[in-house]
Design brief:
The complex is a heterodimer of chains A (about 350) and B (about 500).
Chain A (H helix, E strand, L loop, with lengths): L1 H7 L1 H17 L21 E5 L6 H17 L3 E5 L6 H9 L6 E6 L18 E10 L1 E6 L7 H10 L5 E4 L5 H13 L4 E4 L3 H9 L5 E5 H10 L2 E6 L14 H4 L3 H5 L4 E8 L4 H15 L2 H9 L3 E5 L1 H21 L17
Chain B lengths: L7 H4 L2 H19 L5 H11 L5 H26 L8 H12 L3 H36 L2 H12 L10 H16 L1 E2 L6 E2 L13 H19 L16 H6 L1 H16 L5 H15 L13 H24 L5 H12 L6 H6 L1 H23 L2 H5 L6 H20 L2 H19 L5 H23 L4 H8 L3 H15 L3 H13 L2
Antiparallel strand pairs in B: 1-2
Helix pairs in contact in B: 2-4, 2-16, 3-4, 3-14, 4-5, 4-6, 4-13, 4-14, 4-16, 5-6, 5-13, 6-11, 6-13, 6-16, 7-20, 7-22, 8-20, 9-18, 9-19, 11-12, 11-13, 12-13, 18-19
The chains are: A alpha/beta (about 350), B mainly alpha (about 500).
Amino acid sequence: MKFIKVIKNKSVLLLSAALITSLLITGCGNKTNEPTSEPEGNYPSQNINGVVAWGAGGTTDNVARRLQPLAEQVLGKSIIMSNKAGGAGILAMQYVNDQNPDGYTLIFNAETPALYPVLGLPDLTYDEFEPIVLFTKGSSVIVVPNNSPYENFDDLIKDAKENPGRIHLGISGVGGQPYMAAAILKNIDGADFNLVPYDGDSSLITALLGNQIQVTALSVGAATQFIKNGNMKALAVMSAERNEIIPEVPSVVESNPEYKEILTASGFFNGVFVKKGTPETAIRKLKEAFMSAFNDPGFQEYAAENGMKPLGLTGEEAKLYIKKWQSQMAWLIYETGDSKVSPEKFGIPKPD
Amino acid sequence: MIGIEGFLIPFLNLELIMYIAAGVFVGIYVGAIPGLSVTMAVSILISFTFSWDILPALAVMIGVFVGGVYGGSRSAILLNIPGAPAAVATAFDGFPLAKRGEAGIAMGISTTESVIGTFFGIAVLVVASPIVSSLALKVSPRDYVLLAIMGLLLVGSLSKGSMLKAMITAALGIIAGLVGMDPITGQPRLNFGFDGLLGGISFIVVMIGIFGLSEALMQLRHNVQPVKQNVDKVRPGWDVILKNLPLTIRCSLIGVVIGALPGTGGDIAALMAYDHAKRSVKNPSRPFGEGAIEGVIAPESANNAAIGGAFIPMMTLGIPGDAVTAVLIGGMVVHGLRPGPMLMKQQPEFFWTIVACLLISNIFLYIFGMTGIKLFSKIVEIPKAIITPIIIVLSIIGSYSISNSVTDIYWMIAFGILGYFFKTYDYPVAPMVLGLILSPIIDTNYRRAMALSHNNLGEFITGMFTNTISVVIILFIVVSLLSQSKYWEKIRSGFENKFK
């Protein structure tokens, strides 16, 4: 009887309420992990889990959360989003790979998994996954502080060749975009920089504005406002053509046409994937939903404003795109000497 | 004061005020539940408010931010489980207060001081944004290494009794912080070939285990009767507030500056403020660690002042000051607005709207923080048979929810059992969390600083003495080391005799 009396205590109720709320928020009690045997064409009969492989607030996360509500309208069910960041996306890849391939667990990820083998990371690449839609392609722009002596791309390359390994170039870790940009400059122009590791775009911006580093490559979307405001000087964009939101900045190809070949596939992309073995009906429905979300004018406008190129690739086209990207970038890393093992060993063919 | 008209927008819009109020209310509870973080709540809100206009969406998120930073102290005081890393220091004196039957007073103080701290942060954001942000830019990786070394000196403050034991737990924390992928080369480190460890051990998981689960286990061991709580007077008197105002302001200043640095946040600010209080307050109301209200005032004013601090680089430079502002920037970008120098130039009224939202949040923080204290105090009176299972279940859900991972639950349990033995044998647990927080800061910044010195140790060391900020931090370290030695007293008394 004493127990009953305690239960009436309001503060116990309060704590129980807190418990239930946290259970609801974490989505325990969501039955999506159970094997389903639903009749064909019934997909989706329950809510879907969407796993973002990167931290909240990053490009992949922003794109995913921008598209999720639009895709829900077509699916008629909710997509419950969660971030599973860490290990360059490996943790999320592993998690999704451990789930049933029933179409109820999606993964939103960027280009990195294609490079896991050459970077010496666990061998769980996009070969085990089925692309639903590849959303956008971004490119980076080479920037220097506004008080930098470099006025253009050629100045930078000239100085880097005269002082190999002395100029600080900020990167976001091995395999990240600034790293790839540095690898391309080394490969084509023979310019050798001192690579200084930072966490990502915003920590690179801090380092550049604080004059800790002399040069870096930022995603166009992140760099634009600093270029327009005069805090940074943009030397060149790392893509075959100029970018529409910063049309005054030349492409590296304009300085040296040799860049053209390697830059057709470079840049970073993101997309939504499911595990291989997911039923065809589910894949078809997801494709329909995410393509409609992708084609939404609001999303297209968002991509344009942030300097991203819409891709909208699905099925075989998407797979081909990833394969081509992987082959070019993996061989680039190998040729600059940062990977000891030839990509051929992982079945990555040499780009032709 | 261009764009000051933006300041009035939220005040004249009842709907916005309601959104802010709802945000603060939800934030307090999200913050109070260990494992549910403000970062998580704000990122859920981005999806949730996707189709809304930007202002209501931002109003809710700012409300959740302000409420959430405060909410962590609730569980720290009542259950000795910090709801968030920024509330770790609050538990040191908050929980002893609850054990004395003064949980109501502790919560009253934490509310008042959080409100003052938030207000101080907002004031600095308005008055000194350009100065603080240019200072933040000048702090180089080398200075972060020095700051983290200064942080390691806190081990002494966070422990009672054996210094050796405190250093052992701190070292364990630092080692646990190294597990996972190398942040620079991406190679697996200390994972013993186990892929599940590639993401490292989240320090929130460790915090929940070592504070929460171990507390539940300790309660099973000791037969402590719940303490009757005195809730007659929970609102701290003006005399208490005024008497401690100098301390509050000093700690708020620590909070703003540490919060404004892009590499550090409210958690470190609160610990540094606690350390500062312990060093500077000569006659606390009770000895520190046994329920000194100064020990609640310091971290609570600092961690809330860090909110305004975190907004400074976000608004002026477009760089997040902490994890929550990183998500907030993402949320604004989704709505087509990118904070930074361009926004300040093109839509300066937006800055003022955010300031007004923060201010309104602060008002609601006081209202919601002060109501319900009596009800909350009763949590301490719940019999063990009921509270212990609830703590255990909360710890499990909390650790799972960080990244929806079952592995994290196992880690939480492992650290909970470790914490139980630590507590049984008088090893302080707080230094372990400190070690975990500082470990990645030292790791990445040291290597960054070395890369910037062309991997030349000589260049790295000489660089320390040619940079004003580095020299100032070194002086701080030297003084705080010296002040612990016996020579210090000699020098001081020598000086005093000379000038007598």
